[in-house]
Amino acid sequence: MSRALGWVLLVVPLLVALGGPLVAGSVDPVGAPSAPPGAGHPLGTDVLGRDVLAVVLSGGLSVVGFTAAALGLAYGVGVPVGLVAAGQRRVVDEVLMRGLDLVLAFPSLLVLMVLAATGHRGAVVLVFTAAAVQVPAVVRVVRAAALAPGCRVAVEALYLQGQSWWRIHVGYVARSALGPVATDAGTRVALVLGLVASANFLGLGLPSGSVDWAVVIDRNSDALDAQPAVVLVPSALLVGLCVGANLVADSVLGRGRRTG
């Protein structure tokens, strides 16, 4: 049951985010600000007079895109560094991990706020910062998988056979770490999504006139009583993405345990 619910909660917001812009139409103002549902705008209008339905259909692509880009960068950097940390001498491992621990010690949102206060804000900064603060945790997951007892025994056997470092650590160790990395990615979606949304709430990412779900929620929060749909609908979609990603990751992990 939870597995099916997880997929529904994950897929519905993704479909809205990816397919919505194709059918949304114009997001230019169509009426009075915070108007109730009426002809031409079935969910009413937001504080800028834009059709709420068009805004909701158009505003998910940025959230999903930023989250996917940040995750891709985090794993693109974290997986190779984790393999290097596990495969090198202890002194190299210690230097890498202690340096990454310093990054891990800083709250992610605080890093974004400091950058914004120094004039560094915008979509590109948001994506790179969200990725950078996830790298230490990704490295730890990959390193732990690569240093697992079963994996180390196989690595030692391959060394005795005269296999190259590349063949051992990329050909074997990286494949062994694929399962833990995939599971971690499922749960990390919610973390990165929450960070991206929080940054947009605070105006650290996209401009205040954006149709991004998080920006729309923040911009219309004062009009919740007059026009609840513009806040509740994108909020429900964001919550669905986070909860759905966690439920799907849990179901995949549980299936892996039963199979094992």
TrEMBL record:
PROSITE patterns: ABC_TM1. One of its GO terms (cellular component) is plasma membrane. It is found in: Cell membrane. The chain crosses the membrane at residues 52-83, 95-117, 123-142, 189-209, 229-249. One of its GO terms (biological process) is transmembrane transport. CDD domains: TM_PBP2. The keyword Transcription regulation does not apply. Keywords: Cell membrane, Membrane, Transmembrane, Transmembrane helix, Transport. The keyword Hydrolase does not apply. It is a multi-pass membrane protein. Residues 60-249 form the ABC transmembrane type-1 domain. SUPFAM superfamilies: MetI-like. Belongs to the binding-protein-dependent transport system permease family. This is Dipeptide transport system permease protein DppC.
